[in-house]
Amino acid sequence: RGKDEKYKIRMPKLRTVKEYKDKRKSVDDVERNIFKFKKSSEEKSKKMEEEEKFFRETFMYHKEIRVLATATAERSVPSERRADLPLTAGEQLEVIDAVQGHALICRNARGRYGYVLVEHLNFR
After folding, report:
1. Which of 110, 86, 107 is nearest to 96 (CA)?
2. What CATH number does the domain located at 64-123 have?
3. Which residues have CB under 8 Å from 51's CB, separation 6+?
4. Which of 17, 84, 102, 124 is deepest in the core (most CB within 10 A)?
5. Can you give the pTM of this predicted structure?
6. Residues 120, 75: contact at Cβ < 8 Å?
C-alpha cells in the first residue's frame, strides 16, 4: 500500500454549489449598494428642496430662481445669523439676486442660500 499512495494522482478541488452561492451573494450585495447610493441622492435632492422652501419663506422671494453669475469666496467667513451664508475659502457660489447695498443672495454647492457681502467674493 505504501507504494500505491506514493503515485496517487491528486485531482484539483472542484468548486461546490455552496461556494457559488457565496460568490453570488457578494455580487448581490454590490448591486444593493448601488441602490443605496441612489437613495442618498434622493435624500440630497429632498434636502435641497427644503432649503429652497426655507429660503423663499425667510427672504420672501417669489421670483424664479435664476443664476446670474458664479463667484468664488476669497476667504472663510462664519455666519452670524441664519440669513447669512457661511463661506469657506475657494468655495464656488452661484449668485441668485443682488440686493440693496453690498449684499448678494447666493447659493452654495450644498443648496443653502444666504446673504454674502460683495467684498468677500471674486468674480472671474
Report:
1. 107
2. 2.30.30.40
3. 110, 111, 112, 113
4. 84
5. 0.61
6. yes
The total number of residues written for the chain in this structure? 124
7: cell is 503515485
DSSP state, residue 84: B
Cβ neighbours of residue 41 under 8 Å, at least 6 residues apart? Answer: none
In a 3-state reduction of DSSP, which class is residue 47?
helix
C-alpha cell at 3: 507504494
CA distance 60 to 21: 58
Asked if 67 and 94 touch (Cβ cutoff 8 Å), the reply is yes
Cα separation, 76 vs 91, in Å, equals 9
Q: Where are the domains of the chain?
A: 64-123
